[in-house]
Design brief:
Length: 211
């Protein structure tokens, strides 16, 4: 009986440790951003050279890779951008027109036209105008089409190539690419990354960038 009790106590102890570890991972660790320790210069160069648009604020920057109908991206913009921008963080949005998958379209002609224009001009006012109306109602007024224009089509493809390049570089750092993909430098000068699909991750981003 005494031996059975000892085994039972040991099993209970192991169970509690495992449960505690799972709870720590599930409720905190899984949402924390990761520090990029490999390919920092290459990742930074890709982001800086991309066709981002921003309000031109003095702090940051915070890069966000997004596409127009990404629900998690829209939620982050609505809930986190106001506070970050109020703190002076330069929210640099890199819009992507995704490739078709198995013959199914993942972007529209007006989306591709707008993405091309944003990459070429980095026009934050255009970004705001695009985001101010439902995606289906946007007509890209006054913008030249990307389809049928080799140069603008190449610009759209550059965004897709950026994602292709970032995926393996981030994976080498234990980061799985997802939208919105957030990358920034913290106060220690560390390059940080967060595939911030869930609200639980927002607080960490705000703390590091806006205090």
């Amino acid at each position: 009986m005494r031996k059975f009790r000892l085994w039972g106590a040991a099993l209970l102890g192991v169970t509690l440790v495992v449960a505690g570890g799972w709870a720590l991972w599930n409720f905190e660790l899984r949402w924390r951003p990761k520090t990029i320790t490999r390919h920092q210069a290459e990742i930074a160069q890709l982001l800086q050279a991309a066709g981002w648009a921003s309000p031109g604020l003095p702090k940051g920057p915070l890069y966000m890779v997004s596409f127009r109908t990404c629900p998690d991206c829209l939620r982050f913009e609505a809930e986190a951008f106001p506070g970050l921008q109020a703190a002076g963080v330069d929210t640099r949005v890199i819009m992507i027109a995704r490739r078709d998958v198995n013959g199914m379209a993942k972007s529209t002609a007006v989306e591709r036209a707008t993405v091309a224009q944003l990459w070429l001009t980095r026009d934050w006012r255009l970004m705001e105008a695009w985001g101010a109306v439902p995606a289906a109602a946007w007509t890209a007024p006054g913008l030249p089409p990307a389809d049928g224009d080799m140069a603008r089509t190449a610009v759209v493809e550059s965004g897709r190539t950026l994602v292709d390049q970032l995926r393996p570089l981030l994976k080498d750092n234990g980061v799985t690419f997802a939208y919105p993909m957030l990358i920034w430098w913290n106060a220690k000068g560390e390059l940080r990354a967060c595939p911030c699909e869930k609200r639980e991750s927002y607080g960490y981003v705000r703390k590091e960038l806006a205090g």
